[in-house]
Predict the 3D structure of the following.
Amino acid sequence: MSAGLPRTPAGLPAEARVLTAAAVVSEGAVLRPGWLAVVGTQVVAAGRGEPPHPADEELGDVTLVPGFIDLHVHGGAGAAFTDGAADAVRRAAEEHLRHGTTTLLASLVSAEVPELERQVRALTPLVGSEPGRATVAGQHLEGPFLSDARRGAHDPHVLCPPDRSSLTRLLDAGEGTVRMVTVAPELPGGIPAVELLAARGVLAAVGHTDASYDVTRAAVDAGARVATHLFNAMRPVHHREPGPVTALLEDDRVLVELINDGVHLHPAIARDVLRVAGTGRVTLVTDAMAATGVGDGEYVLGGLPVHVEEGVARLVDGGSIAGSTLTMDVAFRRAVQVVGLSLEDAVAVTSTTPAAALGRDDLGDLAPGRRADVVALSPELAVARVMTGGRWVP
Protein backbone atom coordinates (compact mmCIF):
# COMPACT_ATOMS: atom_id res chain seq x y z
CA MET A 1 0.00 0.00 0.00
CA SER A 2 1.56 3.25 -1.08
CA ALA A 3 1.74 6.09 1.43
CA GLY A 4 1.00 8.50 -1.44
CA LEU A 5 -2.49 7.19 -2.15
CA PRO A 6 -5.41 9.60 -1.42
CA ARG A 7 -7.07 8.68 1.87
CA THR A 8 -10.61 8.74 3.19
CA PRO A 9 -11.20 10.46 6.54
CA ALA A 10 -11.22 6.97 8.08
CA GLY A 11 -7.69 6.37 6.83
CA LEU A 12 -8.36 3.90 4.03
CA PRO A 13 -7.18 4.63 0.48
CA ALA A 14 -9.96 6.35 -1.43
CA GLU A 15 -10.19 3.51 -3.97
CA ALA A 16 -10.49 0.78 -1.33
CA ARG A 17 -13.34 -1.70 -1.72
CA VAL A 18 -14.76 -2.68 1.64
CA LEU A 19 -16.31 -6.13 2.05
CA THR A 20 -18.31 -7.06 5.14
CA ALA A 21 -19.05 -10.58 6.36
CA ALA A 22 -20.28 -12.43 9.41
CA ALA A 23 -16.65 -13.30 10.13
CA VAL A 24 -13.16 -12.71 8.75
CA VAL A 25 -10.18 -14.86 9.74
CA SER A 26 -7.14 -12.57 9.79
CA GLU A 27 -3.73 -12.80 11.48
CA GLY A 28 -4.72 -15.76 13.63
CA ALA A 29 -7.99 -14.27 14.91
CA VAL A 30 -11.66 -14.56 14.00
CA LEU A 31 -13.19 -11.11 13.57
CA ARG A 32 -16.97 -11.25 14.21
CA PRO A 33 -18.47 -9.44 12.42
CA GLY A 34 -15.60 -8.57 10.17
CA TRP A 35 -14.62 -6.44 7.23
CA LEU A 36 -11.90 -6.47 4.63
CA ALA A 37 -10.54 -3.61 2.52
CA VAL A 38 -9.00 -4.37 -0.87
CA VAL A 39 -7.11 -2.13 -3.29
CA GLY A 40 -6.33 -3.69 -6.64
CA THR A 41 -4.83 -7.11 -5.97
CA GLN A 42 -4.01 -6.55 -2.29
CA VAL A 43 -5.63 -6.54 1.11
CA VAL A 44 -4.95 -3.20 2.76
CA ALA A 45 -6.88 -3.58 6.02
CA ALA A 46 -9.10 -5.90 8.03
CA GLY A 47 -11.09 -5.30 11.16
CA ARG A 48 -13.84 -6.26 13.59
CA GLY A 49 -17.23 -4.56 13.87
CA GLU A 50 -18.38 -1.69 11.69
CA PRO A 51 -16.06 -0.82 8.78
CA PRO A 52 -14.48 2.64 8.50
CA HIS A 53 -16.91 3.57 5.75
CA PRO A 54 -20.04 1.96 4.28
CA ALA A 55 -19.51 -1.41 2.69
CA ASP A 56 -19.13 -1.66 -1.05
CA GLU A 57 -20.16 -5.34 -0.81
CA GLU A 58 -22.21 -6.84 2.00
CA LEU A 59 -21.51 -10.55 1.75
CA GLY A 60 -23.86 -11.60 4.52
CA ASP A 61 -23.60 -14.79 6.56
CA VAL A 62 -20.24 -16.02 5.30
CA THR A 63 -16.78 -16.43 6.77
CA LEU A 64 -13.88 -15.01 4.77
CA VAL A 65 -10.65 -17.03 4.85
CA PRO A 66 -7.46 -16.83 2.77
CA GLY A 67 -7.33 -18.84 -0.43
CA PHE A 68 -6.24 -22.42 0.09
CA ILE A 69 -2.73 -23.50 -0.90
CA ASP A 70 -2.28 -27.11 -2.03
CA LEU A 71 1.33 -28.32 -2.12
CA HIS A 72 0.49 -31.76 -3.54
CA VAL A 73 -2.06 -32.11 -6.34
CA HIS A 74 -1.85 -34.10 -9.57
CA GLY A 75 -4.92 -32.92 -11.49
CA GLY A 76 -8.67 -32.61 -11.68
CA ALA A 77 -11.61 -32.28 -14.08
CA GLY A 78 -10.30 -35.24 -16.06
CA ALA A 79 -6.92 -33.56 -16.66
CA ALA A 80 -3.51 -34.36 -15.18
CA PHE A 81 -0.51 -32.07 -14.85
CA THR A 82 1.53 -34.80 -16.52
CA ASP A 83 -0.31 -33.83 -19.74
CA GLY A 84 1.75 -30.64 -19.79
CA ALA A 85 -0.70 -28.94 -22.15
CA ALA A 86 -1.89 -25.48 -21.17
CA ASP A 87 -5.53 -26.49 -21.57
CA ALA A 88 -5.10 -29.50 -19.26
CA VAL A 89 -3.40 -27.35 -16.63
CA ARG A 90 -6.16 -24.75 -16.92
CA ARG A 91 -8.94 -27.34 -16.52
CA ALA A 92 -7.33 -28.91 -13.47
CA ALA A 93 -6.60 -25.52 -11.90
CA GLU A 94 -10.14 -24.31 -12.52
CA GLU A 95 -11.60 -27.39 -10.86
CA HIS A 96 -9.60 -26.81 -7.69
CA LEU A 97 -10.24 -23.08 -7.77
CA ARG A 98 -13.98 -23.78 -7.58
CA HIS A 99 -13.18 -25.43 -4.27
CA GLY A 100 -11.11 -22.52 -2.95
CA THR A 101 -7.57 -23.47 -3.98
CA THR A 102 -6.00 -20.27 -5.26
CA THR A 103 -2.37 -21.47 -5.28
CA LEU A 104 -0.96 -24.93 -5.95
CA LEU A 105 2.09 -26.96 -6.79
CA ALA A 106 1.60 -29.11 -9.91
CA SER A 107 2.65 -32.61 -8.88
CA LEU A 108 4.08 -35.11 -11.35
CA VAL A 109 4.24 -38.87 -10.77
CA SER A 110 7.07 -41.31 -11.45
CA ALA A 111 8.19 -41.75 -15.04
CA GLU A 112 11.43 -42.59 -16.79
CA VAL A 113 13.80 -39.65 -16.45
CA PRO A 114 13.66 -38.55 -20.15
CA GLU A 115 9.84 -38.58 -20.06
CA LEU A 116 9.74 -36.76 -16.73
CA GLU A 117 12.17 -34.19 -18.12
CA ARG A 118 9.77 -33.63 -21.04
CA GLN A 119 6.87 -33.11 -18.63
CA VAL A 120 8.88 -30.68 -16.51
CA ARG A 121 9.85 -28.64 -19.58
CA ALA A 122 6.23 -28.52 -20.72
CA LEU A 123 5.04 -27.23 -17.34
CA THR A 124 7.85 -24.74 -16.79
CA PRO A 125 6.40 -21.83 -18.82
CA LEU A 126 3.06 -22.20 -16.99
CA VAL A 127 4.55 -21.77 -13.52
CA GLY A 128 3.79 -18.33 -12.15
CA SER A 129 0.86 -17.97 -14.52
CA GLU A 130 -2.78 -18.15 -13.55
CA PRO A 131 -4.37 -20.82 -15.74
CA GLY A 132 -8.01 -20.82 -14.72
CA ARG A 133 -7.12 -17.95 -12.31
CA ALA A 134 -5.42 -20.27 -9.78
CA THR A 135 -1.69 -19.67 -9.50
CA VAL A 136 0.67 -22.53 -10.30
CA ALA A 137 3.47 -21.71 -7.85
CA GLY A 138 5.85 -24.47 -8.91
CA GLN A 139 6.31 -28.13 -9.66
CA HIS A 140 6.55 -31.11 -7.33
CA LEU A 141 8.26 -34.28 -8.52
CA GLU A 142 6.78 -37.23 -6.65
CA GLY A 143 9.19 -39.80 -8.03
CA PRO A 144 10.85 -41.66 -9.63
CA PHE A 145 13.33 -41.81 -6.72
CA LEU A 146 11.03 -43.91 -4.54
CA SER A 147 11.12 -47.24 -2.72
CA ASP A 148 9.66 -50.16 -4.62
CA ALA A 149 8.52 -51.61 -1.29
CA ARG A 150 6.45 -48.47 -0.59
CA ARG A 151 5.66 -47.42 -4.15
CA GLY A 152 1.89 -47.11 -3.70
CA ALA A 153 0.41 -46.08 -7.06
CA HIS A 154 3.74 -45.56 -8.84
CA ASP A 155 4.87 -47.75 -11.73
CA PRO A 156 7.56 -50.09 -10.37
CA HIS A 157 9.22 -50.33 -13.79
CA VAL A 158 10.30 -46.66 -13.75
CA LEU A 159 11.51 -46.34 -10.16
CA CYS A 160 15.23 -45.73 -9.78
CA PRO A 161 17.84 -44.50 -7.30
CA PRO A 162 18.51 -40.74 -7.37
CA ASP A 163 21.81 -40.26 -9.17
CA ARG A 164 23.20 -36.73 -9.29
CA SER A 165 23.12 -36.53 -13.08
CA SER A 166 19.41 -37.40 -13.39
CA LEU A 167 18.37 -35.11 -10.55
CA THR A 168 20.39 -32.20 -11.94
CA ARG A 169 18.90 -32.81 -15.37
CA LEU A 170 15.35 -32.56 -14.00
CA LEU A 171 16.06 -29.47 -11.90
CA ASP A 172 17.73 -27.74 -14.83
CA ALA A 173 14.74 -28.55 -17.05
CA GLY A 174 12.52 -26.72 -14.58
CA GLU A 175 14.62 -23.52 -14.70
CA GLY A 176 13.94 -22.87 -11.03
CA THR A 177 10.27 -23.91 -11.08
CA VAL A 178 10.76 -27.31 -9.41
CA ARG A 179 10.01 -26.43 -5.81
CA MET A 180 9.81 -29.88 -4.20
CA VAL A 181 11.08 -33.39 -4.90
CA THR A 182 10.06 -36.51 -2.97
CA VAL A 183 12.88 -38.98 -2.31
CA ALA A 184 13.22 -42.27 -0.44
CA PRO A 185 16.46 -41.51 1.42
CA GLU A 186 17.43 -45.16 1.98
CA LEU A 187 18.04 -45.66 -1.75
CA PRO A 188 21.63 -45.55 -3.03
CA GLY A 189 22.44 -41.87 -3.43
CA GLY A 190 19.42 -40.84 -1.34
CA ILE A 191 21.23 -38.68 1.23
CA PRO A 192 23.43 -36.95 -1.40
CA ALA A 193 20.24 -36.26 -3.38
CA VAL A 194 18.72 -34.55 -0.34
CA GLU A 195 21.89 -32.49 0.06
CA LEU A 196 21.77 -31.47 -3.62
CA LEU A 197 18.13 -30.43 -3.38
CA ALA A 198 18.77 -28.38 -0.26
CA ALA A 199 21.79 -26.71 -1.86
CA ARG A 200 19.64 -25.67 -4.82
CA GLY A 201 16.85 -24.27 -2.65
CA VAL A 202 14.41 -27.07 -3.46
CA LEU A 203 12.25 -28.63 -0.76
CA ALA A 204 13.49 -32.17 -0.22
CA ALA A 205 10.58 -34.34 0.85
CA VAL A 206 10.81 -37.79 2.41
CA GLY A 207 8.15 -40.14 1.09
CA HIS A 208 7.32 -43.51 -0.44
CA THR A 209 10.04 -44.77 1.83
CA ASP A 210 11.03 -47.88 3.75
CA ALA A 211 13.77 -45.97 5.58
CA SER A 212 14.73 -46.70 9.15
CA TYR A 213 14.44 -44.13 11.90
CA ASP A 214 18.19 -43.45 11.78
CA VAL A 215 18.32 -43.03 8.00
CA THR A 216 15.36 -40.67 8.14
CA ARG A 217 17.07 -38.63 10.83
CA ALA A 218 20.16 -38.47 8.63
CA ALA A 219 18.01 -37.23 5.73
CA VAL A 220 16.58 -34.43 7.86
CA ASP A 221 20.07 -33.47 9.02
CA ALA A 222 21.07 -33.40 5.33
CA GLY A 223 18.28 -30.94 4.55
CA ALA A 224 14.99 -32.81 4.10
CA ARG A 225 12.18 -30.52 5.22
CA VAL A 226 8.87 -32.14 4.17
CA ALA A 227 7.10 -35.41 4.94
CA THR A 228 5.13 -36.47 1.85
CA HIS A 229 1.64 -37.55 3.02
CA LEU A 230 2.80 -38.75 6.44
CA PHE A 231 1.96 -42.40 7.21
CA ASN A 232 0.86 -43.20 3.66
CA ALA A 233 3.44 -45.13 1.58
CA MET A 234 5.83 -45.26 4.54
CA ARG A 235 7.17 -48.01 6.77
CA PRO A 236 4.71 -48.11 9.68
CA VAL A 237 5.67 -47.29 13.25
CA HIS A 238 7.00 -50.21 15.31
CA HIS A 239 7.98 -50.00 18.95
CA ARG A 240 11.46 -51.43 18.28
CA GLU A 241 12.06 -49.64 14.95
CA PRO A 242 10.10 -46.36 14.88
CA GLY A 243 10.79 -45.82 11.17
CA PRO A 244 10.32 -42.62 9.19
CA VAL A 245 7.01 -41.49 10.70
CA THR A 246 8.42 -40.94 14.18
CA ALA A 247 11.63 -39.37 12.88
CA LEU A 248 9.74 -36.90 10.72
CA LEU A 249 7.07 -36.12 13.27
CA GLU A 250 9.45 -35.38 16.15
CA ASP A 251 11.73 -32.95 14.28
CA ASP A 252 10.69 -29.30 14.37
CA ARG A 253 12.38 -28.68 11.03
CA VAL A 254 9.96 -30.88 9.11
CA LEU A 255 6.67 -29.83 7.51
CA VAL A 256 4.13 -32.66 7.61
CA GLU A 257 1.60 -33.29 4.83
CA LEU A 258 -1.73 -34.87 5.78
CA ILE A 259 -4.44 -36.09 3.39
CA ASN A 260 -7.50 -35.32 5.49
CA ASP A 261 -10.16 -37.19 3.51
CA GLY A 262 -11.13 -39.87 6.02
CA VAL A 263 -9.69 -42.55 3.70
CA HIS A 264 -5.94 -42.00 3.94
CA LEU A 265 -6.00 -41.22 7.69
CA HIS A 266 -8.30 -41.76 10.62
CA PRO A 267 -9.31 -38.45 12.27
CA ALA A 268 -7.71 -39.57 15.53
CA ILE A 269 -4.34 -39.82 13.76
CA ALA A 270 -4.76 -36.30 12.37
CA ARG A 271 -5.52 -35.04 15.88
CA ASP A 272 -2.46 -36.79 17.29
CA VAL A 273 -0.21 -35.32 14.59
CA LEU A 274 -1.54 -31.83 15.21
CA ARG A 275 -1.06 -32.22 18.95
CA VAL A 276 2.57 -33.24 18.47
CA ALA A 277 3.60 -31.01 15.58
CA GLY A 278 1.24 -28.04 15.90
CA THR A 279 -0.40 -26.10 13.10
CA GLY A 280 2.87 -24.38 12.19
CA ARG A 281 4.27 -27.70 10.94
CA VAL A 282 1.19 -29.31 9.35
CA THR A 283 -0.21 -28.67 5.90
CA LEU A 284 -3.30 -30.33 4.48
CA VAL A 285 -2.92 -31.54 0.90
CA THR A 286 -5.26 -33.29 -1.50
CA ASP A 287 -2.98 -35.57 -3.57
CA ALA A 288 -5.91 -35.22 -6.00
CA MET A 289 -5.85 -37.01 -9.35
CA ALA A 290 -7.64 -36.37 -12.64
CA ALA A 291 -10.87 -37.99 -11.42
CA THR A 292 -11.44 -35.11 -8.99
CA GLY A 293 -14.67 -33.36 -9.89
CA VAL A 294 -15.57 -35.93 -12.55
CA GLY A 295 -16.91 -38.94 -10.67
CA ASP A 296 -16.50 -42.66 -10.37
CA GLY A 297 -15.08 -44.64 -13.26
CA GLU A 298 -11.87 -45.75 -14.92
CA TYR A 299 -8.80 -43.50 -15.08
CA VAL A 300 -5.04 -43.62 -15.54
CA LEU A 301 -2.42 -42.30 -13.11
CA GLY A 302 1.22 -42.38 -14.18
CA GLY A 303 0.39 -44.98 -16.80
CA LEU A 304 -1.37 -47.29 -14.33
CA PRO A 305 -5.12 -48.10 -14.54
CA VAL A 306 -7.14 -46.69 -11.65
CA HIS A 307 -10.70 -47.49 -10.60
CA VAL A 308 -12.65 -44.84 -8.68
CA GLU A 309 -15.61 -46.03 -6.64
CA GLU A 310 -17.56 -43.86 -4.20
CA GLY A 311 -14.85 -41.25 -4.62
CA VAL A 312 -11.99 -43.54 -3.56
CA ALA A 313 -9.26 -44.10 -6.17
CA ARG A 314 -7.43 -47.44 -6.20
CA LEU A 315 -5.12 -49.21 -8.59
CA VAL A 316 -6.92 -51.83 -10.64
CA ASP A 317 -3.95 -54.15 -10.10
CA GLY A 318 -3.39 -54.66 -6.38
CA GLY A 319 -5.86 -52.16 -4.97
CA SER A 320 -3.41 -49.60 -3.58
CA ILE A 321 -4.88 -46.18 -2.90
CA ALA A 322 -4.06 -44.05 -5.96
CA GLY A 323 -4.12 -40.43 -4.89
CA SER A 324 -7.54 -39.02 -4.05
CA THR A 325 -10.53 -37.10 -5.32
CA LEU A 326 -10.27 -34.72 -2.36
CA THR A 327 -10.60 -30.94 -2.66
CA MET A 328 -9.23 -28.43 -0.18
CA ASP A 329 -12.65 -27.15 0.90
CA VAL A 330 -13.56 -30.67 2.02
CA ALA A 331 -10.20 -31.00 3.79
CA PHE A 332 -10.86 -27.65 5.55
CA ARG A 333 -14.41 -28.60 6.50
CA ARG A 334 -13.34 -31.99 7.87
CA ALA A 335 -10.54 -30.29 9.82
CA VAL A 336 -13.15 -28.24 11.67
CA GLN A 337 -16.14 -30.56 11.83
CA VAL A 338 -14.41 -33.95 12.23
CA VAL A 339 -10.89 -33.36 13.50
CA GLY A 340 -12.03 -30.53 15.76
CA LEU A 341 -9.81 -27.61 14.76
CA SER A 342 -10.82 -24.02 15.33
CA LEU A 343 -11.39 -21.84 12.26
CA GLU A 344 -8.10 -20.05 12.79
CA ASP A 345 -6.17 -23.32 13.12
CA ALA A 346 -7.86 -24.71 9.99
CA VAL A 347 -6.72 -21.57 8.15
CA ALA A 348 -3.19 -22.17 9.38
CA VAL A 349 -2.97 -25.70 7.96
CA THR A 350 -4.64 -24.85 4.64
CA SER A 351 -3.13 -21.42 3.93
CA THR A 352 -0.65 -19.84 6.33
CA THR A 353 1.68 -22.79 6.91
CA PRO A 354 1.96 -23.89 3.24
CA ALA A 355 2.56 -20.26 2.22
CA ALA A 356 5.47 -20.11 4.65
CA ALA A 357 6.84 -23.39 3.29
CA LEU A 358 6.93 -21.83 -0.17
CA GLY A 359 8.58 -18.68 1.19
CA ARG A 360 5.57 -16.65 0.03
CA ASP A 361 4.98 -13.81 2.45
CA ASP A 362 2.43 -12.36 0.02
CA LEU A 363 0.03 -15.28 0.56
CA GLY A 364 -1.60 -17.23 3.35
CA ASP A 365 -3.40 -14.55 5.37
CA LEU A 366 -6.02 -11.82 5.02
CA ALA A 367 -3.66 -9.18 6.34
CA PRO A 368 -2.38 -5.86 4.98
CA GLY A 369 0.06 -6.34 2.12
CA ARG A 370 -1.10 -9.87 1.29
CA ARG A 371 -2.63 -10.81 -2.04
CA ALA A 372 -6.41 -10.63 -2.01
CA ASP A 373 -7.04 -14.34 -2.47
CA VAL A 374 -10.24 -14.90 -0.54
CA VAL A 375 -12.67 -17.77 0.00
CA ALA A 376 -16.16 -17.01 1.29
CA LEU A 377 -17.52 -20.00 3.23
CA SER A 378 -21.16 -20.62 4.12
CA PRO A 379 -22.20 -21.40 7.72
CA GLU A 380 -21.77 -25.08 6.73
CA LEU A 381 -18.23 -24.26 5.49
CA ALA A 382 -19.10 -24.84 1.85
CA VAL A 383 -17.52 -22.52 -0.74
CA ALA A 384 -19.88 -19.66 -1.61
CA ARG A 385 -17.51 -17.42 -3.60
CA VAL A 386 -13.81 -17.23 -4.47
CA MET A 387 -11.66 -14.16 -5.14
CA THR A 388 -8.20 -14.22 -6.68
CA GLY A 389 -6.03 -11.13 -6.85
CA GLY A 390 -8.93 -8.89 -5.84
CA ARG A 391 -11.38 -10.19 -8.44
CA TRP A 392 -14.28 -12.53 -7.85
CA VAL A 393 -14.17 -15.70 -9.91
CA PRO A 394 -17.21 -15.84 -12.20
Observations:
- The first helix runs from residue 86 to 98.
